[in-house]
Every structure is written in C-alpha cells, then in structure tokens.
Write a structure and sequence with these properties.
This protein is mainly α. Helix 1 runs antiparallel to helix 2, helix 4 runs parallel beside helix 8 and helix 11 packs parallel to helix 13. About 5% of the residues have low confidence.
C-alpha cells in the first residue's frame, strides 16, 4: 500500500499470526464437551494460532493462500464467539483480515480500476469494510489491557498511547499497536475524499510512534518500513530526509531480505519525485530478493514481487518526466 496512508501488508518484516494446528482435536472436543472444557480447548488452539510463523506466510503460492484465507478467518471468528476475550485470537483476526483485504481485495481494486471503474469502486468498498473489521479486533485486543483506549485515542491520541507498555505480561502490545494502526491506516487510504476518515490519521501516527518507542527493532524493521509508507500521508510537503532515515534503518534491520521495503520507497518517494532511474532501480531490487532466502517471509516477498511487476508495467504512466539526479537518493 505504499504511497498511501499506511503500511503495506506485503512487508516481509511482518509476521502474520495465522497457524492451523490442533484443529482436529478442537473439532472432537467441540463435538460434545462441557462449556469449561470447550473454552479451554479453544483457548489452547487460540494460543497456537497466535504464535510463530504460519503455513500461510511460508507459502509462496499467492493464489492458494488467497483461496484458503477466508476459511481460516471464519474459523477464527467462530472461536472468538466462544472466547471473545482471547488476545491471541483477536490479534490473529486483526492481522489476518488486513492480509486478506490488502492482498486479495484492495489489490484487485487497483488493478481493475484501469478498465472497470464501477467494479473497482465495489472492491474498494469491500476492502474498506474488511480493514475496519480488522481494526475492531485490534482495538478489542488493546482494550483488554487498556479499557477505554479506543475512545481516548480518538480524542487524545498522544495521551492514549502513553498507557501502552511492553512488559513481558503484555508482550503482544507492540504487535497489537502495529496491526491496529495498519488496519486503520489502510481503511483511511482507501476512503477517498472521506474527510472524517482522514481526520483519524493522527490515531495511526500515534500508535506507530508509540510502538517505535517501545521496540524500534520489532520484526526486523517493520515499524520503520511503516514510517516510510506513512511519510507522505499527511498534507503538506513530506519530510523526505526522515523517510530516508527510516528506510535506511529498516534496510539495516531486515538485512535486505524485505522486498517490500524497496517497493515502499519507490512508491512513496520515487513516484512523487518523478525519479524514473531511482524507481527502476528499486523495482529491480524488489524483484532481486529471493522469496526462498527466508521461509518466514516467503509469501510476503512473493506479494511484493507481484506488485512490483504490476508497477513496472505501469511505469510510463506513473512517471512522466525523464530521470534526474536527486538529493537523498537510496542505495
């Protein structure tokens, strides 16, 4: 989603908390057990779903994952009906809906827009609803530890996020901040000409800034990649120096294994500056990242490749001026 108001979901530095384990056991328990046993089983499966890399993010078959995700999301929602305050399940639902909406609904809207404006509008509307659905799960997860967080964030974003900590007991707080900010930011980015949604951008910025304060190296630079993508979201002249600093820090933390970081800079900086040489170089860097080099990033890098190829095919429409030297270019 680079060039919009929030982070791209194909960033390889993110880990989508989505794993299917113990499902057979869970089905057997749910078939005829007491409420307490059923709740215990659901919570155990919820803990598994929220931990470690998933079978989704280690798969580079983009279409296969897209076909499987809806079942997984509805499964998680059915578990949340039984255990509505399970933080792991809420985190899983938030991240999962962001991934599905961005990679399989929002992207289709962008691709479709060139030849079918009405269909693109329908897809954007669906993507927006899915992003807001994800945000609701994220806010629910945060409010388990910080009651009233959502309302205070709306009215006093900077004060609200100061309550969020990163203790061992609340080790998922940075992750919840990230995914809640991502889902709300993407909803803002796709809500064209919606002033009410744009007015919520300070909430996204406050959550991201707080997450950076708590753990700036989280997920090998994911928060800095987010800052790159958010750099041109606010009205006015972007701070390209700050964007470059976040890019370089993310590059250092990810050790060059995050294909979407290059893509984010290309969309956020190279296109607005109409720098074709830099754009072409960054697209090549994106495609040069081998998805198999890091199995935990395989799907996310594959998604970045898909988008890079699409953008490369549109380069003549995106950048109309000849390449020029610019201060602050990237290596």
């Amino acid at each position: 989603m680079s060039g919009r108001a929030s982070p791209r979901c194909d960033s390889a530095s993110h880990r989508f908390p989505f794993r299917f384990a113990s499902i057979t056991l869970l089905a057997a328990v749910l078939g005829g057990s007491s409420c307490s046993i059923r709740r215990y089983a659901i919570n155990q499966v919820g803990d598994v779903l929220a931990e470690g890399p998933s079978v989704y993010e280690t798969d580079q078959d983009v279409e296969l994952v897209g076909e499987a995700l809806p079942f997984g999301l509805k499964l998680v929602e059915s578990l949340l009906v039984q255990s509505p305050n399970h933080r792991g399940l809420l985190l899983t639902a938030c991240g999962g809906f962001v991934l599905y909406s961005y990679a399989y609904v929002d992207y289709r809207a962008e691709v479709t827009e060139d030849h079918d404006l009405e269909r693109a509008r329908q897809l954007r509307d669906r993507a927006r609803k899915l992003y807001l659905r994800a945000a609701d799960y994220g806010f629910r997860g945060l409010e388990l530890s910080y009651p009233g967080f959502r309302q205070q964030l709306f009215t006093q974003p900077r004060q609200a996020v100061q309550h969020v900590t990163n203790t061992r007991k609340r080790r998922k707080d940075v992750e919840l901040l990230y995914w809640t900010a991502a889902s709300l930011g993407l909803a803002i980015s796709i809500s064209r000409n919606d002033a009410a949604m744009l007015a919520r951008l300070p909430e996204v910025e406050a959550m991201l800034d707080r997450a950076l304060e708590l753990d700036e190296a989280w997920r090998e630079g994911a928060l800095h990649t987010f800052q790159v993508q958010l750099g041109t979201a606010s009205p006015g002249e972007p701070d390209y120096d700050a964007i470059k600093r976040h890019y370089e820090r993310a590059l250092d933390l990810s050790q060059g294994k995050d294909a979407s970081l290059y893509l984010a800079y290309a969309e956020t900086v190279s296109i607005p500056r109409q720098d074709r040489a830099e754009f072409d170089s960054l697209i090549e860097k994106t495609l040069a990242v081998n998805p198999d080099a890091d199995p935990n990033r395989r799907l996310l890098n594959a998604l970045a490749h898909r988008r890079a190829q699409w953008l490369r095919g549109r380069a003549d429409d995106l950048i109309l001026t000849p390449a020029t030297d610019t201060n602050g270019g990237v290596q």
